[in-house]
Amino acid sequence: MESVFQGINNVFSFVIPISDFLWDFPTNFSWYANIPILGNFSLAIILLVATGIFFTIKTGFIQITHFKEGLKILTKKKSDEMGISSLGAFFLSSAMRVGPGNILGVTGAISIGGPGALFWMWVSAFFGMATAYIEATLSQIFKEKKDDDFVGGLPYYGQRLLGNKAWAGIALSFMFIVYAMCCLPAQGYNVVSSVGQMGEMISGTSISTTSPFYYIVAILLILLTTYIAFGGIKKVTKVTNVAVPIMAVVYVVTVLLLILMNLGAIPYFFKAVLGGAFTPDAVFGGAFGTVLAQGIKRGLMSNEAGQGTISLAAGTANTEHPCEQGCVQAIGVFLDTMVICTLTGFVVVMAHLWTSADASAWLELDKLPKFLTSASVLTPGGELFNSIIIFLITVCFCLFAFTCLIGFISFSEMAAARITKKKMFINAIRIMGIGITVFGILSSMAGIDLGNLWAISDLGNILIVFANVPLLYLGLKYAYKATVHYKKNDGTKFTSDIIGTECNYWDERNK
User: Fold this and answer.
1) Quick one: 85 exposed, middle or buried, by C-beta within 10 A (0-12, 13-18, 19+)?
2) What is the pLDDT of residues 77-112, one digit of tens each?
């Protein structure tokens, strides 16, 4: 069995150079790389950052002016039984945003590009908040009713913006389904492996991946995932409404505790991050382009602004105006990067193990061990306290992975509904998602490193970005008119007349 998994992993290895090529293009050509300043920026980075900057200016810095408004919307109750609340949609999107990448991605970015990568994560997230606002607003404008739920997002606004051609919605739906399926094995792998680590911490003994413990964990995970997946979007939101606040609060409190116990290292943190953003340390290669690319690339992987995938969650919300969910989704980017990713960065940078005598050993570690080792260095008070901190972090990592897992399956179901509303097809997508998750679980039990699947996720990310961002520009005029109407707040209802194009749900509701 191990040889089968290893063979599959080797086949996937061809994805890495393709993914790297697309993310680095055209900086991987000398004629472009030699251009002063511009040669440091890949097309993907230019596209994402420039789009965020443009949307920020176009909306009048909506992520600042309406940040408080977004917080107020999160506390509103649903007006009726249709769809889910803005808070429920926020938790659903956070289930996807706040994932293992908040630990693995940040740690990896810092270990490759240095502490300065965190600064560029902040920059990309700030402007990405405006991009997320536009995505969510378009999702709401063009959402549709499906029984007692709403559906919307990239496949829906993409179809409408491309002349309401059915092939456009189908193609975008298939693209998202393929992307989600590529991400599932790693999440199943992460859940099982993290539960195994927690079992070892509690028992104080090493647990073989072929032991009954792992088989029981695997079976329970498969049954739980199946139960949630076949319960539909409302069942998923019931889980994320509980899991997301718990994992976020536990992680924030745990890391804040580490920071409070190492207050003297805070000045070093800001010096390393702000200084490394423009003059990276030689130990990380000393290249400005590397630190910039790592920060923005991993920032996108974490908060998904510009990717269009979180837009599916935005389309499920029951709101009074399309722009309300835009404000909420902008806060989602803030939570993910400015809060969760920054806390991860605090741990890695404050420990600064790359400056210690064991620097070479630390650099050789995988991403999660790098982070846990850094957390151990910052934890005073003996072995027991250190074990508690590491256990809590591992619990959070497990929840991060699990909520991502059910989020990917749930979002795949939403995308499948754009292709056909036939129950048989939607159930087939659910079953396929569960089956691919089983592959990831078995890979963990076989002790196989599916690192190449992260490259597939990178590839899926960049392909969806190239498909989604042009659509955002096509829809900008509608989102902008909706924003102007929202800011006026003159009591008029939102309808097709406001933006100059048909939006059936809002006409039915407000005319």
Assistant:
1) buried
2) 655 556 677 777 777 777 777 777 788 888 888 887
